[in-house]
Specification:
By secondary structure, this protein is α+β, with helices and mostly antiparallel strands. The protein is built from six helices and 18 strands. Keywords: Signal.
Amino acid sequence: MKRELKAALGATALLAGAATVVVVGGATSGTAAGVPSSAYGITASGLIPIDPTPSVTSTDGKAVSDSAVGLPVPGLADVGVINAMAENDHATASVANVDLTGGLLKNAGLSTALAPVVDGCNQLASALNNTTAQLGGALTDLLGQIGSATPPLTGGDLISSPTVLGPLQKLCDTLDNLGELVHVGAVTAECTGHTGEGKVASINLLGLPVDLPTGANQALSSGALGALAPVLDVKINTQTTNADGTFTVTALELDVLGQIQIKVASATCGHVTNAVTPTEVPSAPAPKPIKTDVPVTG
C-alpha cells in the first residue's frame, strides 16, 4: 500500500510540474537595415503619367530583376525590350530604343491646339501652288532670256522650285506629325556604390542625328535641338547623391512642352544588412509545492 501511494504521489507531482514548464530559449527575428538598391526602365509624369516600368527593389540585398516589352499606357512612346536589375551596391537598367510618336501629343491634348496651325500651313502651301500656276506663264516671258548659255530658268521653275515650296511643305508635314519627333537608340544606366554612368547610343531629332555631349549631368543645347528647342528639353547622364545616402544615375530625361516628363533607364545604388535581433522570452515561473489529502504512513 505504501509503495502504491508513493508511486501515485510521484506521478501527480510530475504532471503538475509539467504543466508549469516554460521553454527558455532564444527566438530570433530578422530585420533589414539600410536603404536598398533599385532600378526601373521608364516612367512618365505630367499629362500622361506612368509608373516606373519595370521596377525592382532589392530589399534583402540579393539580386532581383524584371523585364517588359512595351508600355502599359499606349501612345506615350514606342519602346523596345526594357530590363531592370538591383542588388546590394549595384543596379542596372536598359531600354532597347525609344520613339516619341504621334499618339504622344494626341493623348496629351496638344495636337488639338496645333490643329489650326497645321490647317493654316497647308492652306498657305496650297495657295502658293495656285499662284505659281497662274504666274508661271507671265514670268516665263519675263525671265525666259536668263541663262541663255545654259538651259533657261523659267518663272514657273523659279517659283515652284523645291527650294521654295519644299521646306514649307516639310514644315507642314512636321507640324502634322509632331509626335514623331524623337528617335533614341539603346539607353543604359548602371551604378556601383557611389559611381555610375548613363549612356545613350544615339538621338535623332526630326530624322537628323545629334551630337551627344559626354560626361555627367549633360543637356542638349538649343543649337543641338534646333527647331525643337521650344518644344523639347533633353538631359543625359544625370547623376545624383540622394539625402538617404543612395546614388542615382538616370540615363535620359525628356520634357515635352513642359507638360510631359519622361525618364528612361534609372539605377539607384544602396546597401542593406540583415540584422538578427533576439526576441525576449519570459522566465519560467517558480515551482509551487503540491498539496495532497492522502496521508502518508509507513
